[in-house]
Design a protein that fits this description.
It is a single chain. By secondary structure, the protein is mainly alpha-helical. The chain has a domain of 111 residues: Winged helix-like DNA-binding domain superfamily/Winged helix DNA-binding domain (Arc Repressor Mutant, subunit A). The protein contains six helices and three strands, in the order ααβααββαα. Strands 1-3-2 form a three-stranded antiparallel β-sheet. It is globular.
């Protein structure tokens, strides 16, 4: 097996910058309402559609019993529901509910409001540079979609 070449200094800088950006997004996320795993699970259901519980557990990197507990909490809170698969009634699929989608939308809106305040501190050129980088960032995310199971983004950053 051949080792991959070491990343360039520029690629390390890209990774470091993206890690800082991810950290910022986490800081802008409302604290306490739902865990990151819960938010990620809801986002996966919203972005990709219904999943088997075992597939959700594998994609989120948690055990099946942990995912069962999480989905049960989501159901109790009206954020997700289990339904029989239309093709195979023996299979149970987890679906996001309108309330779950509304929670995700509200979280995104809150982050956007907070981020707007930070963007106001940038120069016009800096903000345009970020906007100009979005197509490349979206393409990078889309290239990772087969690995992560995410659908490619639409032109407005919607899945």
């Amino acid at each position: 097996m051949t080792e991959a070449p070491a990343p360039t200094a520029e690629r390390y800088a890209i990774v470091a910058g993206l890690e800082r950006l991810i950290g910022l997004i986490r800081l802008l996320t409302p604290a306490g309402e739902i865990s990151l795993t819960t938010a990620s699970t809801l986002a996966r259901l919203a972005n990709i559609g219904p999943h088997r519980l075992s597939d959700l557990a594998a994609r989120e990197g948690v055990t099946q019993p942990a995912m069962t507990q999480l989905v049960s909490r989501l159901e109790r809170n009206g954020l997700a529901e289990r339904r029989g698969d239309t093709d195979d009634r023996r299979v149970v699929m987890v679906h996001i509910t309108p309330a779950g989608q509304q929670l995700l939308d509200q979280r995104r809106k809150q982050r956007a409001i907070q981020l707007s305040g930070l963007l106001d501190e940038l120069s016009s050129d800096e903000e345009h540079s970020i906007a100009a980088a979005l197509p490349a960032l979206n393409k990078l995310a889309d290239l990772g979609a087969p690995v992560t199971g995410l659908r490619p983004l639409g032109p407005l950053g919607e899945r």
